[in-house]
Amino acid sequence: MSWLEGALTTLALCWRIERCDGVTIGLTAHDRDLEWNGLVHRAAPGMVPSAITRGAGLDPGGMDVTGALTSAAISEADLLAGRWDGARVTIFACDWTDPANQVALGEGTIGAVETRDGVLTAELRGAMAALERPVAEETSPECRAALGDRRCRVAMAGRKRFALVTAIEDTVLLLDAAEPLPNAYGQGRLRWIGGANSGLDDAILRSDGATVTLRRPPRFDAPGRVLLIEGCDKTLAMCAARFGNALNFRGEPYLPGIDLLTRYPGG
Q1: How far apart are CA 31 and CA 48, in angstroms?
Q2: What angle do CA 246, 155, 83 make, to 5 degrees?
Q3: Per-residue confidence of the chain (267 residues) as pLDDT tens digits?
Q4: Please, are residues 178 and 185 in contact by the beta-carbon 8 Å criterion?
Q5: pTM here?
Q6: Distance (Å, rounded) from C-alpha 3 to C-alpha 9?
Q7: Backbone torsions φ then ψ of 67, nearest 5 degrees
């Protein structure tokens, strides 16, 4: 690393950010764009990382990235809308005269995002964050599988449909097509295909005819084309009656709950 030992260093800090949908961008704190490995790292001098610490443990150390993200590739509106949630971030330093000369500084995923006094701060979570989640499942009367996953095994080929959102009123969307059966999309998912919300997912609370009610209003009040995915209320009754899939039910509907401990003797 002789390029770090000279009297005048040519050091540039770079980020490679890959979204969950495959969209990948490069950013650099340098004052001009840098290209390496086929990816152009756009100049974003306003982005400043916090101190980066390296230790002997599994986690390379968490950090924050602060700045005004106003480039065409990534913006405050997109971050707050959730487009970059869980995006994979790789941070490295390089020689801006020859970007192939690099020093890896860390990697992680984008976590919490907040704005304060006009400044945007994005948290970068390290590898240890994944180990903070519970490892073993807890018993529950509801099914713990997701409809159509490898544990549920319900075929989803005929349970996904395209529709056009023609009007939006708070959390209620009006579609150009009615549901195939009552509350077909309740507890399901909606994925925006076009418009300002394109690429974003929303949870569906319930559906009724040609309307669906989301759990929260869309990020942008802009109608567009959507993909509707049927849902399940995760009860044994629906699993057996609607899907005929009681054999794969992943819950304990008959296991006594915590309320049993509060009963009086003889109650």
Answers
A1: 13
A2: 110
A3: 666 676 667 888 888 889 888 889 888 888 888 988 889 988 876 666 665 655 555 454 555 565 555 455 667 777 777 888 888 888 888 888 888 888 888 788 887 777 666 566 777 777 666 667 777 788 899 999 999 999 999 999 899 999 999 999 999 999 999 999 999 999 999 999 988 888 889 999 999 999 999 999 998 888 999 999 999 999 999 999 999 999 999 999 988 877 766 766 665
A4: no
A5: 0.70
A6: 7
A7: 160, -175
Query: What is the DSSP-derived secondary structure letter of residue 75?
Result: B
What tokens appear for 255 in the block?
A: 């296991």
Helix (H, G, I), strand (E, B) or coil at 84: coil
Give CA–CA dist 195/223, Å, rounded.
Answer: 7
Of 79, 74, 73, whose CA–CA distance to 110 is shortest? 79
Residue boundaries of the structural domains of the chain: 2-128, 160-242
In this structure, the number of other CB atoms found within 10 A of the CB of residue 160 comes to 14
Where do runs of H (alpha helix) occur along the chain? 76-81, 236-241
Half-sphere exposure of 168 (CA within 13 A, CB side): 18
For domain 2-128, give its CATH number from 2.30.110, 2.60.120, 3.40.50, 1.20.1250. Answer: 2.30.110
Going by C-alpha positions, the residue among 199, 208, 187, 186 that lies closest to residue 226 is 199
DSSP-derived pairing of the beta strands 24-28 and 39-43: parallel
Q: Name the residue type at position 181.
A: L
Q: In one letter, which amino acid is 218?
A: P
CATH number corresponding to 160-242: 2.40.10
